[in-house]
Automatic annotation (TrEMBL):
The gene is hpnR. Residues 21-161 form the B12-binding domain. Its cofactor is [4Fe-4S] cluster. The keyword Methyltransferase applies. It comes from Mycobacterium simulans. Keywords: Iron, Iron-sulfur, Metal-binding, Methyltransferase, S-adenosyl-L-methionine, Transferase. It comes from the Bacteria. PROSITE patterns: B12_BINDING, RADICAL_SAM. Its EC number is 2.1.1.-. The keyword Zinc does not apply. This is Hopanoid C-3 methylase. InterPro entries: BchE-like, Cobalamin-bd, Elp3/MiaA/NifB-like_rSAM, Methyltransferase_Class_B, rSAM, rSAM_horseshoe, rSAM_sf.
Length: 492
């Protein structure tokens, strides 16, 4: 009898990874970026501590190029331990892949129960359970306690009523959900490291989580939307000691030299959070741990450069910052107040760079009401970060179902497709033409340089293998189209 956790492959991304030093393969392939699935590995470790062995298959880490390969791995994983009683799938934006695998599992293993977890599942559990009867359960929020209790209930053939954060259909076919309980991160064992050797062999980094959730509510963000579901205390932090213990083990047991701290928000601007970051640096330095690391922060987390100097001494070499757009108004529309009017994000970026900290920018180039000034400003910001990935010029906002942005686009009539990811079209046909030109140039040219893409993007010059002359992005500025929703406009 097997309990199985599965993560399908599915990163179809252009360009380069910032989570290790490795280049992705041919960008036109259905390629996979092998990062550990810390969520599944944390569930696995927790379940083991409760006496339950779980088998896992991670198509991303295994480098699967199709769901058929993942299916074969699932069959293989169950060969020695017997047919599965419960399968838990994780999905970020791999819903079609998960659906395909679930249907296969249903056809193959009579009586198997199937659960789904992670952001899209949490935010959309009602829709998923109403529309897809191949899923029995959705785990809403943290998975460690919920999935372990669910697995024990399934194995022992008892009711699942006391499983926290469990959505399911009741006898009447209605979707019901038990309240989620937020896990105390310090009560969790460290994640299993089953996937790490493969990840390291592929040139990617080990990961550690030190917080969960986020206190902010940027309209496009699944993490903000999930945190809103779970209330004020959903942004949680592990104790500094336990995070540093984990990093120390990664260095001693796996000889890692770079750690990706995978928190959505490692530190906020608030003094307690800044103090925690300082404590973290102190602990790393006092234990003499020789490792570099990267974290995700907000631009307004950079309150005191001395703190970043200190973190740099402790090994901080790279930060991911969601800069999003060069337009102050659009930032406000996204409810991402990281700047004061007149403040230039490039100055903060440059200050960090001068300390020896590389800045990986999160940017959203195109959204339904984008105008030329915004494109130019976002391109300028991109240049300032020195993150020379040409594919950044292609970035389109992704409206994830369950986020406020998705609702806004739906209400405004922008969505051309709804599920499993919102697709949208430009309000201004000129913006659409520019996007098509840029995508037509950069998309099929994996070797295009940032400078070439930038020149084309900014000045409309024609380069390289472009088959048809492209036109300038200098279309006449038009008044911005207001998107009224709850009194504000929102995006990414
Ligand atoms: C590392 C990472 C990746 C890695 C690999 C992720 C992986 N898990 O394999 C890479 C770089 C490949 C990646 C890619 C993408 N990612 Co990503 N990623 C992250 C990141 C930064 C950390 C994940 C992590 O380690 N979390 C910590 C662990 C402990 O938590 P967890 O994974 O969420 O798991 C817990 C619960 O969610 C739940 N759970 C999860 N799965 C399951 C399954 C079952 C059965 C159960 C019961 C429970 C359960 O239980 C776990 C333990 O409590 C998160 C942000 C974040 N901090 O979570 C974004 C995040 C998950 N990614 C996101 C996005 C958008 C993407 C991409 C679509 C980006 C892109 N445009 O290409 C791709 C899609 C990849 C894909 N295959 O679908 C979004 C998802 C937003 C949404 N859907 O609403 C997030 C939340 C970032 C954000 N704030 O926007 N990502
Ligand atoms: S984008 Fe960043 S700051 Fe905004 S809600 Fe998401 S994680 Fe928090």
């Amino acid at each position: 009898m097997t309990i199985l956790l599965v993560n399908p492959p599915g990163v179809r991304e252009y360009g380069r990874s910032y989570v290790g030093e490795q280049k992705l393969g041919d960008p036109r392939l259905y390629s996979s970026m092998p990062m550990e699935h810390l969520g599944l590995m944390s569930i696995k470790a927790y379940a083991k501590a409760q006496g339950l062995e779980i088998t896992s298959v991670n198509g991303l880490v295994a480098g699967h190029t199709s769901v058929e390969e993942t299916w074969a791995a699932m069959l293989n994983a169950t060969r020695s331990s017997g047919r599965p009683r419960l399968i838990g799938f994780s999905s970020i934006d791999t819903f079609p892949e998960v659906l395909w695998l679930s249907q296969r599992a249903r056809q193959t293993w009579e009586g198997v129960r199937i659960a789904l977890g992670n952001a899209i599942a949490t935010l959309n559990y009602e829709r998923i359970l109403r529309q897809h009867d191949c899923f029995d359960f959705v785990v809403v929020g943290d998975g460690e306690v919920a999935f372990t209790k669910l697995a024990l209930a399934v194995v022992n053939d008892v009711a699942v009523d006391d499983v926290p954060g469990l959505a399911r259909r009741n006898e009447k076919g209605q979707v019901v959900c038990t309240p989620s309980s937020l896990v105390d991160l310090d009560e969790l064992p460290p994640p299993a490291r089953d996937e790490l050797p493969t990840v390291l062999a592929d040139g990617f980094a080990a990961s550690v989580f030190s917080t969960r959730g986020c206190p902010y509510r940027c309209t496009f963000c699944g993490t903000g939307a999930m945190s809103a579901m779970f209330g004020r205390n959903s942004y949680r932090a592990k104790s500094v000691d336990s995070v540093v213990d984990e990093i120390e083990c990664l260095v001693s047991d796996f000889d890692v030299d770079f750690v990706f701290i995978s928190d959505d928000l490692f530190m906020s601007k608030h003094s307690s959070s800044q103090q925690r970051a300082a404590d973290f640096a102190n602990e790393m330095l006092s234990r003499g741990i020789d490792v570099n690391f990267m974290v995700d922060i907000r631009l307004d987390s950079v309150v005191d450069l001395d703190l970043y100097k200190h973190l740099h001494r402790a090994g901080l070499r790279r930060v991911f910052i969601g800069l999003e757009t060069g337009s102050y108004d659009q930032l406000r529309a996204y409810r991402k107040q990281i700047l004061n009017r007149g403040q230039d994000a490039a100055d903060t970026v440059s200050a960090l760079q001068q300390l020896g900290i590389e800045v990986i920018p999160g940017t959203i180039m195109f959204h339904p009401t984008v105008q030329p000034d915004e494109l130019r400003e976002t391109a300028r910001l991109l240049r300032a970060t020195k993150y020379t990935n040409a594919f950044k010029f292609l970035g389109r906002i992704l409206p994830y179902p369950g986020t406020p942005l998705y609702q806004e686009y739906s209400d405004a009539g922008y969505l051309t497709a709804e599920w499993p990811l919102g697709q949208w079209d430009f309000v201004d046909p000129e913006a659409s033409r520019v996007y098509q030109d840029v995508a037509g140039l950069i998309g099929p040219n994996p070797d295009i340089t940032f400078d070439e893409a930038e020149a084309f993007f900014s000045r409309g010059s024609m380069i390289g293998t472009m088959s048809s002359p492209a036109e300038s992005v200098n279309w006449q500025a038009k008044p911005r189209t207001a998107t009224p929703l709850n009194g504000c406009r929102r995006g990414e």
